[in-house]
Amino acid sequence: MFQKILIANRGEIACRVIDSCRRLGVATVAVFSDADRAARHVAMADEAVHIGGPAPADSYLKGDAIIAAARDTGAEAIHPGYGFLSENPDFVEAVEAAGLIFIGPSAKAIRAMGLKDAAKALMETAGVPVVPGYHGQDQHPDHLARMADQIGYPVLIKAVAGGGGKGMRLVEAGRDFADALDSARSEAKTAFGNPDVLIEKYIQQPRHIEVQVFGDGTRAVHLFERDCSLQRRHQKVIEEAPAPGMTPEVRKAMGAAAVRAAEAIGYAGAGTIEFIVDGSDGLREDGFWFMEMNTRLQVEHPVTEAITGVDLVEWQLRVASGEPLPARQEELSITGHAFEARLYAEDVPAGFLPATGRLAHLAFPDTARIETGVRQGDTISPWYDPMIAKVVTHGATRAIALSRLESALVDTEVAGSVTNLDFLIALTRHAEFRAGEVDTGLIGRDLDALIDAAAPDAGARALAVIGLAGLADPSVRGGMTLWQPLRRTIAWDGGEALLEVEGPGAARVTLDGTPHEVRWQGDRWWVDGALRRNRIVRHDAGTSVFGGRTVTLAPLDPLARAGEAAGDALTLSPMPGLVRSVHVKAGQAVKAGDRLAVLEAMKMEHALTAARDGVVAEVLAQAGDQVEAGAPLIRLEEDAEEAA
Ligand code: ADP
Ligand code: ADP
Ligand code: MG
């Protein structure tokens, strides 16, 4: 086993790797950017080395700086985590040339799976079923269109260099093909510097089922499957293991195909073979097809750990340090069921826009395994993946594990940024999901209902008013005696309510003209007669109500409001990204809500819209510009200018 390793990553995965190292007595070196000086992974590691500026290109993607840090600190090996340099074969070669060990597969194995078209061709030869389609060299649009006709619509266009759902377009009919091809190619060109695509039959009622494999460079075993069908725009939201409805026969067939795939490329370490599965009529031995291989530890690896009892990071370290595979296939088995939910700082009603903020309050229940890279007081910056935590639960059956996931999410508390927490809670209550009827279209079909079920309701807002007024503080709740009703206006950043205290444990809150009767006893709260599962928490950024339908009310800040009012003439970039397109010209009249520009960031495209009606005074950015968070993009004429 190694004495000391360096972790070339940040956030929850860096912390996750350090956890296993500690248990194994392996010393750890963290690396960090300017934005991460005070990050959790830096605090957890035995040593930490500063490697550059906040942009990934200036730090976490700087292979030479990372290798130098490893040599300077005497680390023997580098763990890449996921993302960043984890699937970069040139980095693997540089690590090895420096006399260090890369904890992962060989550069050759990564290259073999790096492009989806070549990987599919290779898998066909290895006898692994691949999705029917065209993955040849001829990229002429007419040829691709003919291939699409031949495959039969609907088809999926995929960037051969793709990842994270980018450069992918579903095409329902031939007349839409040319446009979809154009936009897929241009997205792929920007994201991966490679515009080439392949075309696949779009599998109906698709399920995403992937198999965890582990190799020693010659032989491989599999650690069963994970179902990652709960996706939004091809991005995983909740994952589980094993897959609902899996039969021993199909599991055996998928496991064998995955092991064949790994052995075909001499795979070493942890990897994942992703299959697309036809879920229209149960799972079948001839109803799954290879999509791609991820040659790294996967984000959702904890669900596999939960059902197998294996620590995959420990296995990675053992195999990389020269030990044999820790278990034979027949020694591996499944116990119970596990779920993982990805908790993100994102604005769900605004279209899941990545959010930022200082986590004024952060608390997790001890009933779940929590993988996180942040602590209370830390900031979710615009520079990196806005993940806050992964919440992982295990139980003897799927129903038990799922109800544990629901409770763990209800007991999770985040304030200081909007999150997808309540959306995740709504998902755990979704009838089809509860019944195990999953497919990749589930979230899309019920998106509006799920967003509605996650939105703050009047009851939660009334409780937040009580909290903001200080009535939920334990000292007040215990000893308060009031001789007469107390009537006052409670104002916060964005609204106000009338509060009438009616006596100890009783108040009326009038919100938007509707009165709500609030009663309380100890930690129990009733609104309009209904017992609420909410908790009221005061923190240094205001007051929050948790327990589903989270509400946070921030105290009034007159300065900030003045700034906002003056600032609505400027459309600023909400995060660092690439300006994809600009849709207005100087002098053009726009209405509130009109699309001004499209920004590509965090793997998604975001439409930036006009905050108010007006006339465009100045266009400050153009398509192709790389912009920082807060960069001005479009300026509208001030009202005075307009009148003149
Ligand atoms: P996995 O296949 O391991 O579940 P994903 O497919 O979700 O991971 O993501 C692929 C890669 O993109 C991962 O290596 C991860 O680091 C990175 N990634 C995931 N989500 C984001 C995000 N919101 N922004 C930037 N990168 C991300
Ligand atoms: P990425 O590299 O972006 O992860 P994948 O090839 O793994 O790309 O596909 C991502 C997701 O897109 C899958 O999880 C699945 O939901 C969907 N998908 C991919 N291929 C197909 C297909 N042929 N038919 C239906 N859905 C598909
Ligand atoms: Mg994938």
Automatic annotation (TrEMBL):
Keywords: ATP-binding, Biotin, Ligase, Nucleotide-binding. SMART domains: Biotin_carb_C. It holds the Pfam family Biotin_carb_C. Residues 1-448 form the Biotin carboxylation domain. SUPFAM superfamilies: Glutathione synthetase ATP-binding domain-like, PreATP-grasp domain, Rudiment single hybrid motif, Single hybrid motif. Residues 559-637 form the Lipoyl-binding domain. Residues 120-321 form the ATP-grasp domain. Gene3D superfamilies: 2.40.50.100, ATP-grasp fold, B domain (3.30.470.20). This is Acetyl/propionyl/methylcrotonyl-CoA carboxylase subunit alpha. It comes from Paracoccus albicereus.
